[in-house]
Amino acid sequence: MAKHLMVDLETLATTPNATILSMGVVTFDPNSTELYADFYHKIELESFDGLDSFIDDNTIEWWSKQSKKAQEEAFDPAGRIDIRKVLDDFNIFCKGSTHFWSHGSTFDTIIEDLPAEMFPDRPWGPGNNPKTAVWEFLKSHSEFEIDKSIDHKLLISVAPDGYLRRLC
């Protein structure tokens, strides 16, 4: 049975180098309501020091307009761990997953295809974006491939070069 994995990040910017507040992940069966396991970590903001991460004032302002409960969860310093540990744990948690889902991965990969002049002040662009990261990832992970079969059936797509698929 295929084990799907959904990732959700809460961040302090909307750029690829955004400082991450928390990472939530769940494995599930898309043909039922069954959840297999979940993974949630709040991340120490100090662990991003020296990692060229970014905090955007507009995103901080957006957080200030969220509910008190959401703000408390996002910014409470209790229980935070180093980003390196979170990524190590995430790598272990992902073992055996066959499909990866994320709101950002589908849109963000299109950045490679947008004209640079469309957003002249952006910190990312062709050769420096999530799609570039996927291509680099694929060079050392032969268990994944780009699957274009779904995209070729769609009139409008947010993933014009296909979707990432893990080979069984």
Helix/strand layout:
Layout: E1 4-11, E2 20-28, E3 35-43, H1 57-64, H2 68-75, E4 80-81, H3 83-94, E5 99-102, H4 103-108, H5 130-139, E6 144-147, E7 163-166
Parallel strand pairs: 1-5, 3-4
Antiparallel strand pairs: 1-2, 2-3, 6-7
What this model shows, in words?
The protein is an alpha/beta fold. The protein has 2 domains: 1-81, no CATH class; 98-168, no CATH class. The chain has 5 helices and 7 strands; from the N terminus they run E-E-E-H-H-E-H-E-H-H-E-E. The chain has helices at 57-64, 68-75, 83-94, 103-108, 130-139, and strands at residues 4-11, 20-28, 35-43, 80-81, 99-102, 144-147, 163-166. The strands form 2 sheets. Strands 4-3-2-1-5 form a 5-stranded mixed beta sheet. A two-stranded antiparallel ribbon has the order 6-7. Strand 1 (4-11) and strand 2 (20-28) form a beta hairpin. It starts with a strand and ends with a strand.
